[in-house]
Task: structure prediction
Amino acid sequence: MTARISLPPDKGYFYDGFASEFDAKMNMYDTLKRVRIVFDELLPESIEGKLLLDAGCGTGWFSRRAHERGAHVVSLDVGVHLLNEVRKKTDSLCVAGTAMQLCFPDATFDIVVSSEMIEHTPDPRAAFSELARVLKPGGVLVLTTPNRVWYPSVVIANILKIRPYEGYENWVHWSDLRRWSTGASLTLLTMRGFHLFPFQFAFLHSLIDTCDRFGDGWLGRLMINIALKGRKL
Result:
């Protein structure tokens, strides 16, 4: 089942343009690590029976894991072709829509998960605020996003054709997320970094995994990705 709302065409649809090839183009070491960080490390508590929004669901890896954990899952992405890929992985309610203006009332969800999504919007702060808006009081937001200090890697990855970056790439700083959490009435429970080195180089994976253990300290601010868990007041 897919619900649709009207969306204007823009480069926010870049990833939907190769939805059937999306998983092949992405780095699965990174994808599966993010799934593990979100669900095993940041959401170790029971989510069975909870209403969970996977915002910017891509091809459905996070939706599938949430469904396996017993949550009632709503998978949202701007691209209907991406949502077709989600349906191949799991049984969730697929909604085509933008995180800039979520088509849900205030205080709808027990949990909102969003991994590597807000940076692909025209205004990441507005998207972050929307994710918090649809959380119930006491609800939990778990989010990952690239660290702005590593933004030059976008240029390098495009030049070397490591992966395509032709959509919105509005990366944010560590301090931005802290400030936005306060403004969105979230109590920050956890904030950590992961991937101290580019994960595209497989020979570095063991070293990267070791360094991830120090992501909740000062070293985390230098890492490529940021993970956050906050609770709605």
User: Anything to note?
Assistant: The two ends are 32 Å apart (CA to CA). Residues 2-232 form a domain with the Rossmann fold fold (CATH 3.40.50.150). The chain has one domain: 2-232. The first strand starts at residue 2 and ends at 4.
